[in-house]
Amino acid sequence: MSFTPPTADQILAIKVSAGIDDIAQAERFAAATPDMVEAIVEGIGAFAAGEWAPLHRAGDQIGAKWKDGVVTMPPGYVAAYKDFVAQGWGSIAGPQAFGGQGLPFTLATAVMETLGAANMGFTLLPILTVGAIEAIDHHGSDAQKALYLPKLISGEWSGTMNLTEPQAGSDVGALRTTATPIVDGPHAGKYRIAGTKIYITFGEHDGAENIIHLVLARTPGAPEGSRGISLFVVPKFHLDADGNPGERNDVQCVSIEHKLGIHASPTCVMSYGDNAECIGEMIGHENGGLRAMFTMMNSARINVGSQGVQIAERALQQASAYARDRIQSARAGSPDKTPVSIVEHPDVRRMLMRMRALTEGSRALLYYTAGQVDRGTLGDGAAQMRAELLVPMLKAWGTDIGCEVASLGIQVHGGMGFVEETGAAQHYRDARIAPIYEGTNGIQAADLVTRKLGYENGGVLQALMAQIASEMEDVPEVAALAKDAAAIGQWMSTTASLDDKLAGSVPFTTMCAVAVAGWQLGRQSRASGLHAKTAVTKFFNRVIVPEARGLGSSAMSGAALLYDLDTDALVG
Amino acid sequence: MSFTPPTADQILAIKVSAGIDDIAQAERFAAATPDMVEAIVEGIGAFAAGEWAPLHRAGDQIGAKWKDGVVTMPPGYVAAYKDFVAQGWGSIAGPQAFGGQGLPFTLATAVMETLGAANMGFTLLPILTVGAIEAIDHHGSDAQKALYLPKLISGEWSGTMNLTEPQAGSDVGALRTTATPIVDGPHAGKYRIAGTKIYITFGEHDGAENIIHLVLARTPGAPEGSRGISLFVVPKFHLDADGNPGERNDVQCVSIEHKLGIHASPTCVMSYGDNAECIGEMIGHENGGLRAMFTMMNSARINVGSQGVQIAERALQQASAYARDRIQSARAGSPDKTPVSIVEHPDVRRMLMRMRALTEGSRALLYYTAGQVDRGTLGDGAAQMRAELLVPMLKAWGTDIGCEVASLGIQVHGGMGFVEETGAAQHYRDARIAPIYEGTNGIQAADLVTRKLGYENGGVLQALMAQIASEMEDVPEVAALAKDAAAIGQWMSTTASLDDKLAGSVPFTTMCAVAVAGWQLGRQSRASGLHAKTAVTKFFNRVIVPEARGLGSSAMSGAALLYDLDTDALVG
Q: Are the beta carbons of A410 and B258 separated by less than 8 Å?
């Protein structure tokens, strides 16, 4: 199945929802001219369609392979990754001091969206590297930055994030990996790392010259829980005096998971210090590891929310092509009994419109969020807080719609959709990880109602919903949804218990996300005057928005409804 | 993952929603005493849990294998199928004249539900056989009945349904398989069948002594489209003079599909008449094939709707066990910092309550429908029409919630859910076929709004919704939903164009199904007084029912919304 990058819609979203021209007013981002925006979006589109998309099926069917600690990417992946490095696509938003282009995050978002739509599993490799760059850039010493950032930014080296352990999933504070200070010898001042980490994406592979693991671990005597965690950088190969990969560090990939999807991406079990010789350096302050990880989380969560958009785009393209080419049955009620393309049948058309509305709506939310991040970077505190409010909405709803659109994509194909050769099923399998990793969608919703809703005593959410209700006065569905969300937010900020908030958190998150998406689609529709955008927006308003309003009862139903049935009766 | 048959909830649904005691008042079904109901539900539960459930994983991981036209079921399946035959589970509702037990369809429904929850893919084998039994019983000659029914009812032989061809999916009328009358020789009066059929479930396998294919084909000069189709019985092995399997007929399984799920069930491409020697007999009248197939459809569609309930039950059990055993994080806001079972966390609990509400709600709809079928069999014309109205609701919504519950089951598992060894992913993959086969859910919704809604000029639907609204006066959510559905039904019956009806058909079908499910849960709750049922019902009313009301805008949004974007703009 070929892939056509959604260039025009991305540029529209970058202009209207991210507001790139406004962002480019700042000297720091002055390079983000309209020409540059087009060059990047079109350039990455051509690269992704030409080099990464053709590898998508093999990634699924062959997948990454583990043998004796060595992980081999599927055929063609190493060469395609080296081309990505050579063309500099990993360096868009990286700091200029270390070889990055220093462009807005919005444009890096476009690069990741396009690569991921071409090949979701593969794109986890640069996504993870971006996380490592951010952690080192924000928390590393000057020496560490100089050592690691240039090669990570170029992509010659890749990065990983090591949080999870078997007993420490959503509860990162339960981790047990240890970091023991080294007092003497050549590694004095560094740490000996020991422990096992699971679910480490691209923890081992053959595409980069070195792999820079960022590892959360505990120093001796550290406080229990999440306040006793420090962050360490653990290179696969130690760096020699010239900063080049030298001897192998004591870190091994002991196995990879057999997963439902994203088979191109090796999900590794990593063992640190089997021979007590795993050496790492601390990044930032002792016990400051979780805060350092949080630095990486905003962009990582945005990139995962974007994966929902990506899978949706890909599934939509595939279903659209099928619906156009598949001829079956005459139009119901038509005197002409000639069979037609199934896209002409109302319910198939409804599914495609729904797929498109969800895809474009989530993309609008994605770029609105990215734009707020860039404004925050430029010192706009309100935008920074709004960005943080938006991140859980985007991550949760974006990944939910990714699954829904992929499922609709199968349905459009009928029986063919269930046959693996068609490729529609791969989207459905790949999409399913995104609501889970990088903080489950339940964790996102909890973040929204317990942390982000607290910003300015609920004021940050209220301001957003008030702006939506006011700008969308002429779109009663969206205005009503924003008012519903504001009212529920108000209840959560004042009356609701913590349990009540958590009980309603997921439906509330969806309502907020849909309100923002509807708003941004409306803005894009007005700004562009494009008939296609207006039609899709109208569908979104008439179908998707009222459904989100239907979640209001659930969002406010409170915890008592959940605990009425006691635990034994519920789960035996 | 072990399987516990949901015996108590099935018996409650059989009593309250099917109304078995009422049905057993009729002499024909007098054997369906409370003792018999319990014996069947508990007996099939023990059999399914003991013999079919343990084969569930191997069915997925090994699957059915094709080699040189021979299809081998996964290890253990043949023996387990023979035990099913030996214990007589296939004969529950079969006609007594041919060895069946003549019990109500409701009890056969319980048998299929339990078997399918234990092993969905495997259970397609008896489901298809039931379809063949019904077609031959209703449309075959006395000689055909005598030849085929006893062995099909016992299960020693299995049945298939052959409709689909590459160019004839939802549009059965486009099929091209031919049936040429044989004038002379030993097969005079029979037909030579030639053509290729696809998606033939258990078209070939090693579990039965003979396979009785029911094949739709065209006789020479037959009218075009669906009015020119006849039904033929084509045994894999010709029957000898004693009615035993003899020489091989000219029908071959040329390949099986590589599918997303239900790997235990071979999905066959069947080739009839490669050597021009495929012999079949006509069932019923020439050109009456589609009507004969419709006979089989009600029960087949009920059994497929049931598959949603089955997967939901299985996914719920697996997620419940995981949520009980997995310890992670202290309760938010609790002074006690000890980690707890994740079921104690509000959002995990919400997911499990949702899974349970959808599972029990769809089961309530299943048995209400089955009970109406039995009443129809007893001559109650209103119940017969109501059953036909309910079938598309059950098939569509039942299979939709199967997918949703399986997806939630993965989410409850977190990262583990995405790892195939856990087994949660199998449910998600298996579930996805059910909205597609046996008439896609779009076809179900079209059947509801174009055919069933027309019964008594909309009166059958209006009567159902009026009854719900009236009996549920004290449950405002359900009453309101029934009134919404009645109003939309009224609009569809009067003002709406055919396109408008079709455009809103899927959300309307969901609304109707949820209204019936909420009603039946309410009846079960009142009748049983069980706290668990009351709590689940309350959740259903507060969460699921308002969401269904949120579909009203979509159901009434009309076709113009879908065709505003022209075809080229929509699908390029």
A: no
pLDDT, average across residues B196-203: 98
Distance CA A266, CA A201 (A): 6
For residue A209, give the 3-state DSSP assignment.
coil
Asked whether residue B112 is domain-assigned, the answer is no
Identify whether A453 is part of a domain: yes
Asked about B438 being catalytic, the answer comes back as yes
Residue A493 forms part of a structural domain: yes
C-alpha distances out from residue B327 to A168, A249, B195, B381, B409, Å: 10, 33, 57, 55, 17
Asked if A214 has any chain B CB less than 8 Å from its own CB, the reply is no
B103 has a chain A CB within 8 A of its CB: no
**Across chain B, how many H-helices and E-strands are there?**
23, 12
For chain B, say whether A347 makes contact (Cβ under 8 Å).
yes
Q: Does the beta-carbon distance from B347 to A506 stay under 8 Å?
A: yes
The confidence score (pLDDT) of residue A295 equals: 79
pLDDT value at B341 more than 80: yes
In this prediction, residue B1 carries a pLDDT of 67
B458 vs chain A: nearest CA distance in angstroms?
19
Cα A545 to chain centroid, rounded: 23
Average pLDDT estimate for B513-523? 98
Q: Could you tell me which residues come within 8 angstroms of residue A199 by beta carbon, excluding any fewer than 6 positions away? A: A164, A257, A267, A437, B415
User: What average pLDDT does the segment B302-320 reach?
Assistant: 98
pLDDT over 80 at A70, yes or no: yes
Cα separation, A84 vs A76, whole angstroms = 12
User: Which of A172, A260, A416, A557 best tests the B interface by mutation, with the highest count of B CBs <10 A?
Assistant: A260
- Which chain B residues are closer than 8 Å to A169 by Cβ? 328, 414-415
Supply the mean pLDDT for chain A.
97
Confidence of residue A228 (pLDDT cuts 50, 70, 90): very high
Residues A400-410: tens digit of each pLDDT: 999 999 999 99
Query: For A437-455, how does the pLDDT look when each residue is reduced to its tens digit (9 = 90+)?
Result: 999 999 999 999 999 999 9
Minimal-distance CA residue of chain A relative to B555 = A543
Q: How far apart are alpha carbons A101 and A333 in whole angstroms?
A: 59
Residue of A165, A281, A313, A438 marked catalytic: A438
Q: Identify the domain containing residue B483 by its residue range.
A: 440-563
Residue of B nearest to A548 (CA): B550
Which chain A residues have a beta carbon less than 8 Å from that of B353? 561-562, 565, 570
**CA distances in angstroms from B405 to A337, B398, B425, listed in the order given:** 40, 10, 12
Report chain B's terminal Cα–Cα distance, integer Å: 46
Residue of B nearest to A543 (CA): B554
**B58 in a domain, yes or no?**
no
- Chain B closest CA to A359's CA: distance in Å? 13
What's the whole-number mean pLDDT along residues B112-126? 98
What is the tally of structural domains in chain B? 1
A104-131 mean pLDDT: 97
